[in-house]
């Protein structure tokens, strides 16, 4: 059997990187020649988790087809978030927790999506269903993903199933989830070594609506949001470039306060006012505060999809 | 909690009808107010299975939104195969074994697809995962679906997982699968009470390609294929009407010999020659024999998708 590449989305977050590693491991135990790879730069948060549990970052790839005919997607399904040459390979599995869109196959496949907060929660089930024990170090990675996606168990995306999985995985990994999690989030919120261009690309996702409208939503976590926003003019210049290059109708830059769980958004593009109106706020100097909003997937994407479709 | 409608595809086959019944039952056991409904006429084969295990056919619906805000799709995902007002309701779950296409949601959902021969095989797992026993009569329905989708365990879509599920379900249902299965297939292959229009609509599925091409593939099972083809002129007249009404580039009418496991196809529409060429056959009087071809999903749709895209 030839090699199968396993990867999460572009601009990978901790769930995308660790899900690729954790699921490739499971598939190897089940006899598949699976290799975890990544489609982008590893964030400081993810680097912290990888180092803490003794892993190297997966290998970066730009294209899949030159080295494999089959791939497995984790933590995403939308084509524009995936590898550029996705059309040239066969998707044999998807493990995900997002909405389904811009996704199509010629053949039946294994597709497992559940409306939970993190891919790792589904992977924890798949280990059980296949009778494979989660190794201690991989349990640490999977726990890191749940902490990351739930902002330490506080996001509205965090479900009872995520809670149960996090408890089981913390037990196996032998860590105190609260203590370890805060350290990991702080490592991720240290943005001091990032350029403006990196900050707006670090965790950015593009969405295409049926009417042809393309938008991009980038999110960073911060301990001191005001400090980040001091560079607003520089962000605007960099974002305007992206808007022009990609033909976007909206770029939303979301800076999330990991202590207070609010977000400041910087909205640029011709749909900016409509986007703000969708959240019942007005833009002031192109920014607005979204109180209690921390989840792009649950609190931002559905609102914009409804408002801009 | 308000009612959730559970249904298979239009022109329902035995898997679509019985999966709706079997999954709605499981969801009710788990506390959901789920009701199985259907989007089309019950076939003779399905009627035989329902009667044998003591079920009434589910209620027919034309639209979902007037009575429910949430739905569960079984045995399909493509929009054009589903209820007409699908865009007006929320799809909260999909349980399926087909390719994924023309499917999109605004929100995360539970999506469970596996590359197996029958939805019932996946449902059998879901009963186990949820710790619910399959009742005897529902086991009979689920077994009927596997027999139907696999043409009594002979289709290339039939996997090891389907075989294991069929054995377990036959045991619970207390029937001899081979004997019961042949009777059920014969009941389905009795086409004597059907009009020409009914025969070409009975198990017809429409597919839309990215380039805008629309095709329809209808399949009937028969014991005596030649007898069915005696009415070729009448079929052609009826199919030409459908092609004109729906703007199809191809209508493929597949008559499958359930004893010898070959199919005769009648190909009409401007793409007919290209379709035949995709199978390395030439049309003679607009028909061709496809030796060993019994599965629309595995042996016909992928070939046409590749050739006509």
UniProtKB/TrEMBL annotation, chains A, B:
Keywords: Cytoplasm, Hydrolase, Manganese, Metal-binding. GO terms for cellular component: cytoplasm. It catalyses: diphosphate + H2O = 2 phosphate + H(+). Its EC number is 3.6.1.1. It is found in: Cytoplasm. Mn(2+) 2 binds at residues 15, 75, 97, 149. Residues 181-308 form the DHHA2 domain. GO terms for molecular function: inorganic diphosphate phosphatase activity; manganese ion binding. It holds the Pfam family DHH. Its cofactor is Mn(2+). Binds 2 manganese ions per subunit. InterPro entries: DDH_dom, DHH_sf, DHHA2, DHHA2_dom_sf, Mn-dep_inorganic_PyrPase. Coiled coil: none annotated. Mn(2+) 1 binds at residues 9, 13, 75. Its main location: cytoplasm. Belongs to the PPase class C family. This is Probable manganese-dependent inorganic pyrophosphatase. The lineage of its organism: Bacteria, Bacillati, Bacillota, Bacilli, Bacillales.
């Amino acid at each position: 059997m030839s090699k199968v590449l396993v990867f999460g989305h572009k601009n990978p977050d901790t769930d995308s990187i660790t899900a690729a590693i954790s699921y490739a491991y499971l598939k190897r135990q089940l006899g598949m020649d699976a290799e975890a790879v990544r489609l982008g730069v590893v964030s400081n948060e993810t680097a912290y988790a990888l180092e803490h549990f003794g892993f190297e970052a997966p290998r970066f790839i730009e294209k899949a087809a030159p080295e494999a005919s089959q791939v497995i997607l984790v933590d995403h399904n939308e084509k524009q978030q995936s590898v550029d040459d996705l059309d040239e390979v066969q998707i044999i599995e998807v493990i995900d927790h997002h909405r389904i869109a811009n996704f199509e196959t010629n053949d039946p496949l294994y597709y497992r999506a559940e409306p939970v907060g993190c891919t790792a929660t589904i992977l924890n089930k798949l280990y059980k269903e296949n009778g494979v024990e989660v190794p201690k170090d991989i349990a640490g990675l999977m726990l890191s993903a749940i902490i990351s996606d739930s902002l330490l168990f506080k996001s509205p995306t965090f479900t009872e199933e995520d809670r149960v999985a996090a408890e089981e995985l913390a037990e196996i990994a032998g860590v105190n989830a609260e203590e370890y999690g805060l350290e990991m989030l702080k490592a991720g919120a240290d943005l001091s070594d990032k350029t403006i261009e990196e900050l707006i690309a670090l965790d950015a996702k593009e969405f295409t609506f049926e009417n042809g409208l393309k938008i991009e939503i980038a999110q960073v976590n911060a301990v001191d949001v005001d400090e980040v926003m001091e560079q607003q003019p520089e962000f605007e210049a960099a974002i305007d470039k992206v808007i022009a290059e990609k033909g976007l109708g909206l770029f939303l830059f979301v800076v999330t306060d990991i202590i207070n769980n609010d977000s400041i958004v910087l909205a640029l593009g011709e749909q900016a006012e409509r986007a703000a109106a969708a959240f019942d706020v007005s833009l002031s100097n192109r920014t607005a505060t979204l109180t209690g909003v921390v989840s792009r997937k649950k609190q931002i994407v559905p609102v914009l999809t409804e408002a801009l479709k």
